[in-house]
Structure formats: structure tokens, C-alpha cells
Design a protein that fits this description.
Structural class: alpha/beta
Distance between the termini: 49 Å
Strand order of the largest sheet: 3-2-1-4-5-7-6
Number of helices: 14
CATH class of the largest domain: Alpha Beta
Number of domains: 2
CATH architecture of the largest domain: 3-Layer(aba) Sandwich
Order of helices and strands: HEHEHEHEHHHHHHHHEHEHE
Strand content: 5-15%
Largest sheet: 7 strands, mixed
Helix content: 40-55%
């Protein structure tokens, strides 16, 4: 199986983890093993890497590319189960956690996976290849529910018009393919708007992917487990690809770094709260050169937090 994926912010992300040669690291979204391969270069024989992915196609490639390394443990699961995974491996704390929240090039370029509106394919979008598909959502969600996910997850200003067009169309015929849905979306958007701002289906497809895979809820629920699983001096590095994900990560990291909560009028601290984390840097964006070489990196943002003390 071919699994093409160019890792985004490769050196910047692995540098951000500040690898300890004998440390334990987790790649929560191993994919094509790009970041993991670079982590392994910086580990000694005593180091360890836990490579996680929910996509069975990715697991095959991970095993092929790095699975033979004695330092690597390959886990087919969703990163939202991070704490259970570590417990099952009898690992209490780790020295670094990485999560790349983007869709892999393999998933986008494999038409039958249904992530792209450019090629005709079944309307799928399931990263795990299990559970409810995008076609199921389009067929069963009410107009109100569709409007909400298009507006909240896609930030689509024509969400209501698009949802209404989908509901009207599905009363006549089942919506089965990516190209059929893309055309229905296009018809709902004013002609003047269609001529600007990229493909008219982009935001709706993003919203559907997030809904199908529960991505926002999973990162919101799991980022705390990532941080609490760190040794002091360990780091979490997360790459996001749109503002909704980035907002969740930014807010969570800020909470880890928050100290005293006493009101400004209080002359001395009485809450006793001290920050557990600190930010090694604010954020890192891809360089112009990387964007030129890999257009899919253009919306990437890397954030990192380091654990500086145990919870009081």
C-alpha cells in the first residue's frame, strides 16, 4: 500500500518536544510516521516511542516503516484513549506527546475515503473507517442540525441555505457521493460569492469531517490527559489546521500556565495556586518555503506547553 504524507512543521515540532535520548514519547496521530521517524533519530537505545493511529491503513504503514524497531510500540486506537493506552502499557508518565490534527495526504488523495470534494467517491470521511459516515449525517440530520454543524464547525455564513437545499434534494434522491454533495452546496451559494474565497464546498466538508470523527470534542477532552501524563520537564506539541482546533488548544494551554487567581485588590495571594506549565513559545507557523513545497501546510499552527511542576 502506498501511503503518501508529507509531515507538516517536521523539524519545528520535533525540536519543540526537546527530546531526551532515554525518554518516552507518544505520537498520538502517527499517520505516515514522519514525525515519529524523526523522534526515533533522537532517541537512544533506552528511549521509547508509542505510535498511535485510528486509521487501519496508517497502522499497516507504521508497522512497515518503524514497527520493527524494538523501541516502538504500535497501537491501533484513537488518541482520546491516551490514558487507557498508557495504563495498559504500564506507563505512568511520559516525556513528550505529539498530535498532528490534520487529515493525512493519503486520506485526502485516496478518493474512496470520501474526504475530498475534488473527486467522485462515496460520502464517507471516517478516519477510523468505522461508525457513522458523512452520508449517514446528510441523510438523517434535520435541517436545524445540519445548519448548526455547518455554522459552528465550518463557520459557513450560508449554512441555513445549504442545509435547506440538502433537505430539499434528499426528499427527491439519496445523496451518496462527494461530488453530488459539492454540487448541491454550490447551488445554494450566491453566484457572486462562488467566484471568490476558494471552493464553495470547502467549509461544509470541513464541518462534516469534524462531526463524523468527533474531532473537536476529542481534542477538548484529551488535551488535559496529554498534559497530566507528562513528567516535569515534558512537553505537549499540537499541530492544528483551523481556528476552532487552535482556539481549544490555546485556551487549554493557557489554563495550564495560569497561576494566582486572587483579585487585583488582594494585597497578597491567598489562593495559593501556582502554574503547572509554561509556554516555550507562543506559536509557530510554516515558513513561506514550506508552504510553497506543501500547500496543505498553509493553515498549520504549532503550539507547545511544558510541564514545570506537579499539580499541588
Amino acid at each position: 500500500m502506498e501511503f503518501s504524507h508529507k509531515s507538516v512543521l517536521l523539524d519545528e515540532t520535533v525540536d519543540a518536544l526537546s527530546i531526551k535520548p532515554d525518554g518516552i514519547y507518544v505520537d498520538c496521530t502517527c499517520g505516515g510516521a514522519g514525525h515519529s521517524s524523526e523522534i526515533l533519530k533522537r532517541l537512544s537505545e533506552k528511549g521509547r516511542l508509542i505510535a498511535i493511529d485510528q486509521d487501519p491503513d496508517a497502522i499497516e504503514i507504521i508497522k512497515e516503516r518503524i514497527g520493527g524497531d524494538s523501541r516502538v510500540t504500535v497501537v491501533h486506537d484513537n488518541f482520546s484513549n491516551l490514558r487507557k493506552i498508557l495504563d495498559s502499557l504500564e506507563i505512568d508518565k511520559v516525556d513528550g506527546v505529539l498530535a498532528d490534527l490534520g487529515v493525512s495526504s493519503h486520506q485526502l488523495d485516496t478518493a474512496e475515503r470520501g474526504f475530498s470534494f475534488h473527486n467522485e467517491a462515496p460520502l464517507d470521511m471516517r478516519m477510523s473507517q468505522e461508525g457513522m459516515s458523512a452520508a449517514d449525517i446528510i441523510a438523517t440530520y434535520s435541517q436545524r442540525e445540519l445548519t448548526k454543524i455547518f455554522r459552528d464547525y465550518g463557520e459557513e455564513k450560508f449554512a441555513q441555505r445549504i442545509a435547506a437545499n440538502i433537505v430539499a434534494y434528499r426528499e427527491r434522491e439519496e445523496i451518496k457521493t462527494t461530488t453530488a454533495l459539492a454540487e448541491i452546496i454550490k447551488e445554494a451559494i450566491p453566484a457572486a460569492t462562488r467566484r471568490t474565497g476558494g471552493h464553495p464546498a470547502r467549509r461544509v466538508f470541513q464541518a462534516l469531517r469534524l462531526e463524523v470523527n468527533g474531532e473537536l470534542q476529542r481534542i477538548s477532552d484529551t488535551v488535559g490527559d496529554m498534559f497530566s501524563s507528562l513528567n516535569v520537564g515534558g512537553r505537549v506539541a499540537i499541530i492544528t489546521f483551523h481556528s476552532l482546533e487552535d482556539r481549544i488548544v490555546k485556551k487549554a494551554f493557557a489554563a495550564f500556565c495560569k497561576g494566582c487567581e486572587c483579585p487585583p485588590s488582594c494585597p497578597v495571594c491567598v489562593c495559593g495556586k501556582t502554574p503547572e506549565g509554561e509556554l516555550p513559545f507562543k506559536k509557530v507557523l510554516p515558513s513561506e518555503r514550506e508552504i510553497e513545497e506543501n500547500q496543505r501546510s498553509r493553515s498549520a499552527t504549532l503550539r507547545c506547553v511544558e510541564r514545570i511542576r506537579e499539580k499541588d
